[in-house]
Model the fold of this input.
Amino acid sequence: MIENLKEITKDTLLSEAQKYADAKARFVASVCNDLGDKLEIFYFFNYSPGVEMDALRMVVGKNERVPSISGLYLCASLAENEMFEQYGLQVKDIAIDFGGHMLLAHDSPELPMLKDKAAGGKGGE
Done:
């Protein structure tokens, strides 16, 4: 169980991330998980000094588009590109968009982290 976890939706993601940006919290990481027919995304934030984390959790359908938080935290563009390449998470308005080739080569398997190709794409070799 994650302490300091808040459930959000794609519609509230930007307003919740804005609260952390306004409070000068650091964006630490984003993590994506394949739940079968949906994707689960966590966003982790930290206040300085300290090691305690706050987390936002969002669950979306595999074909849904979510907003990018890279307008608030430029470094999030790396995590968002990775989630797109590995899981097919559709992120709109990424500040730096690598077009699906930040980590994967042109001949790499598509969506390699998806559990089931039939559930949402061509992934999982």
Q: What stands out?
A: Residues 25 and 47 are 5 Å apart (CA to CA). Residues 5-114 form a domain with the Beta Polymerase; domain 2 fold (CATH 3.30.460.80). The longest helix spans residues 76-87. The helical segments are 13-22, 76-87, 117-120.
